Amino acid sequence: MDNKLITQLGDELYQALITQTMIEPLTNRHPEITIQNAYNIQQRMIERRIQAGERIIGKKIGVTSLAVMNMLGVYQPDFGYMLDGMLYNEGESIDMSTLIQPKAEGEIAFILKKDLLGPGITNAQVLAATECVMPCFEIVDSRIRDWKIKIQDTVADNASCGVFVLGDQAVDPRKIDLALCGMVLEKNGELITTGSGAAALGSPVNAMTWLANTMGALGIPLKAGEVILSGALAAMLPAKAGDSFRVSIGGLGGCTVRFH
């Protein structure tokens, strides 16, 4: 896949993002697309967002839980970038007109106090570099029509990032076993699903280590001050105007998000 086509597809995804429109799967139109091609397309899409005035404030790991893998038919993790235009405050209402086909995921966010640059990063180094962890919602969204995605489609589409909301507490990750903490997810006051830290590659710390080493191998550090979303702890839940979600994670507190 040549650079001209990579740029063209990155621009197409960016236009879909800002106009809230869906496009046909890239893998249908370009079956030869590789995962590396897809990351190059992702870079172009992010470049367009930065040119428009946004800045990178973190990274995310996608497709870490079996529930999400089965929903999407995608069976390996990926990564994407979090930008300041994606961040909402706890309890703030999200305008549905800014999204296309959103789904809510309960996750654990890591706030870093030191850089992490793999390969060779260990779980202990991840914990030592973490300022705190927080409950959060990632509202994933896809510019690809009807979520008909393969791994290359979601990678190119910045790992299907939409927006995210950080919760109401910050906790020292060394004081809690993140693999064992349970998660409860409510939609409109009704318990919909439960999960645990172990859903994210066995532990959110494992997911963080995977990310630090995978991005590090590409020369990309996880930076001090960044927010890193470590992956869904249960299935994604579709969201529409009027919906309210609450995630509660044992030992970490909760996070609420509303849509209008």
Low-confidence stretches: none
CATH class: Alpha Beta
Main beta sheet strand tally, sense and closure: 8 strands, mixed
Please name the CATH architecture. Alpha-Beta Complex
Distance between the termini: 40 Å
Beta content comes to: 25-35%
Please write the string of helix (H) and strand (E) elements: HHHEHEEEEHEHEEEHEEEE
Query: What spatial form do the alpha-carbon principal axes imply?
Result: globular
Overall tally of structural domains = 1
Radius of gyration: 17 Å
CATH fold-level name: Fumarylacetoacetate hydrolase, domain 2
CATH superfamily: Fumarylacetoacetase-like, C-terminal domain
Structural class: alpha+beta
β-strand number: 13
Overview of this structure, please?
This protein has 260 residues and is an alpha+beta fold. It has one domain: Alpha-Beta Complex (Fumarylacetoacetate hydrolase, domain 2). It has seven helices and 13 strands. The chain has helices spanning 3-19, 26-29, 35-51, 66-72, 123-128, 151-156, 204-216; strands at residues 56-62, 78-83, 87-88, 93-94, 103-112, 130-140, 163-166, 182-187, 190-196, 227-232, 237-238, 244-249, 253-259. Strands 1, 2, 3, 5, 6, 7, 10 and 11 form an eight-stranded mixed beta sheet that branches. Strands 4-13-12-8-9 form a five-stranded mixed beta sheet, with no helix packed on it. It is globular, with a radius of gyration of 17 Å.
